[in-house]
Amino acid sequence: MTTRRQMLRRLAAGAAIVATGRSAGAATPAVAPDHPAVGWSDHVALERAPDGAVRPHRGLDVPGRGYRWDNPGARFSFRTDARAVTVHLRYSDRHTSPSARAPAGVWLIDGRGDERWVFTSRATTTQRAVEDLDLDLPVPPDGRAHDYAIVMPYGDSVDFRGLTLAGGTALERAAPRPAFRYVAYGDSVTHGFTASRVDRIYPYRVAAMRGWQTVNLGLGGRSARPTEGAAIGALAGDLVTIGIGVNDWQGGVAPATYRENMRGLIAGLRAKQPRVPVHVITPLWVSGGNPPRPRIRWTRIARPCGLWWPSCGKAGTPRCGWSRDRS
After folding, report:
1. Which residue from 28, 227, 266, 315 has the least number of CB within 10 angstroms?
2. Per-residue confidence at 289, pLDDT binned at 50, 70, 90?
3. What CA–CA distance (Å, rounded) separates 5 from 112?
């Protein structure tokens, strides 16, 4: 008897390594993007594009980048016994960054992925035109209903335009995602840059290993902002991580200012969620050609969080220890 794992393995062996879909407008969706059988998870909010497509967004943005419409790990899912499944997507005009784009998303079947189950845009340049993608998914050959999930890229804006199904009778909600919600807030490291695809960024991997949902609020280029604590708390996560500080350091923010910004950020979060577990991640050490302005020595900022502030020190060698704030 063929097990489900063996069946998915065989299915993966026959799937394209990277799917870029057919030409724009090659198929007309028969299932509307707001069909009740299509469920969204691991996201902040949804809006409608002018043509009715469903567009996830994160609320927070970076001017001139459009990162609000990047949705690292956000996904929609459905269950069907169709013999042919086409998902209609659009790489929209919302992502506007002139310097960074990561368009690779993935799909899952019955909660399992494969290294080759990847979709991406046809354009390979950082800036691109609007591009429709008609994604033909591989279908297990057993004739049964299966759960399909499309996981959005971390560094590009993608709309959902609908589905085309053939050869089946069932379309219903997929199995629900885990109730536990992990909220990851931070800068480009949390956002995902420069991972090759969405399932290789740390919030996604942590959530997958732990069996959690994840909501990614990483924003490339972000520094600590006290005003964003309330936005984090409003998501009602069951656990929150904050990984931010590299851009403060490189921007020459004084340790005392950084300390107050972090205190304000956490206070805003605590005002919404007084008891949620919060883990502050030590900012990554960046050396070599990325010195801060001005140079700042290592200083421990937040004693309860074990947060270290970086220093240029000697040629990229960090020096850790208690010291007074210096700039």
Report:
1. 315
2. low
3. 9
Q: Which is nearest to 286 in space by CA: 248, 305, 312, 307? A: 312
* Res 308: pLDDT: 39
Q: Supply 212's token pair.
A: 């959690």
Would you give the DSSP letter of residue 95?
A: -
Over 80: is that where the pLDDT of 49 sits?
yes
d(CA 192, CA 35): 30
- Give the residue with greater pLDDT, 249 vs 47: 47
**Coil/strand/helix, residue 305:** helix
Each residue of 106-134: b (16+ CB within 10 Å) or e? bbbbbeebbeebbbbbebeeeebeebbbb
Q: What is the pLDDT of residues 187-215, one digit of tens each?
A: 999 999 999 999 999 999 999 999 999 99
Tell me, what amino acid is at 106? V
How far is Cα 14 from Cα 9, in angstroms, rounded to an integer?
9
Q: With 70 as the cut, is the pLDDT of residue 322 above it?
A: no
pLDDT band at 286 (very low <50, low <70, confident <90, very high): confident
Q: What tokens does 71 get?
A: 């949705």
Other CB atoms closer than 10 Å to residue 6's CB: what's the count? Answer: 10
Six-digit token string for 33: 């993007």
Mean pLDDT on 294-303: 45
Task: Specify the 3-state DSSP secondary structure of 301.
Answer: strand
Distances (CA, A) of 5 to 35, 78, 230: 29, 20, 43
Could you say which of 2.60.120.260, 1.20.81.30, 1.25.40.10, 3.40.718.10 is the CATH number of the domain covering 4-172? 2.60.120.260
Query: Can you tell me the distance from the alpha carbon of 11 to that of 154, in angstroms, rounded to the nearest whole number?
Result: 26
Residue 57, amino acid: H
101 C-beta neighbours (distance < 10 Å), count: 22
**Any idea where the domains of the chain sit in the sequence?**
4-172, 223-309
